[in-house]
Write a sequence for this structure.
């Protein structure tokens, strides 16, 4: 019986690992960027995250980092202007970074739109994007921050940008939509 349980757990763990691997393979296959560009962007992302964890001013979990063709997007909340400025400065110091764009909101202590509301909005927006067959939804990253929706990624056309933005704006409870979607050339 003990051997059976151990075998079951090994198969379960392998299944979970393979699912993650398959998901990564799928994402890479449908990505508009070449594998080399994806690798470079991932290396930049990891370097920025490393700098953030090593810096005393930065609250690592308050900032999300997205990189597309060397262009960095920092999205998150800050407690002080120094934190925000430090994050932008550190990201700009990483080799291979072409530009840094930030979307930061001041952290609010009594925010009426908390984690639960953000997760609900995120799910609704993603559902609508996936449901639209004319949008390559796997190319669009969606972030919800204080009930504001941020769209990031590379898409095929201006029409996709307009449709994705319209879907996000149509979700009840969304305060604003900021699109950093770009057309992959």
């Amino acid at each position: 019986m003990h051997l059976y349980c151990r075998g079951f757990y090994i198969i379960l763990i392998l299944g979970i690992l393979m699912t993650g691997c398959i998901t990564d393979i799928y994402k890479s296959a449908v990505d508009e960027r070449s594998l080399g560009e994806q690798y470079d962007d991932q290396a930049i992302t990891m370097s920025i995250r490393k700098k953030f964890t090593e810096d005393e001013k930065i609250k690592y979990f308050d900032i999300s980092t997205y990189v597309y063709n060397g262009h960095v997007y920092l999205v998150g909340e800050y407690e002080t202007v120094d934190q925000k400025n430090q994050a932008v400065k550190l990201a700009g110091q990483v080799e291979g970074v072409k530009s840094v764009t930030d979307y930061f909101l001041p952290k609010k202590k009594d925010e009426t739109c908390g984690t639960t509301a953000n997760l609900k909005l995120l799910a609704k927006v993603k559902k609508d994007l996936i449901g639209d067959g004319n949008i390559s939804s796997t190319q669009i990253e969606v972030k919800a921050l204080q009930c504001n929706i941020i769209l990031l990624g590379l898409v095929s056309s201006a029409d996709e940008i307009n449709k994705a933005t319209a879907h996000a704006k149509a979700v009840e409870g969304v305060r604003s939509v900021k699109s950093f979607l770009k057309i992959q050339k």
Summary: The CA atoms of residues 70 and 98 lie 5 Å apart. Helices lie at 2-30, 35-54, 81-92, 115-131, 158-170. Residues 115-183 form a domain with the Histidine-containing Protein; Chain: A; fold (CATH 3.30.1340.30). Confidence is low (pLDDT under 50) at residues 21-26.
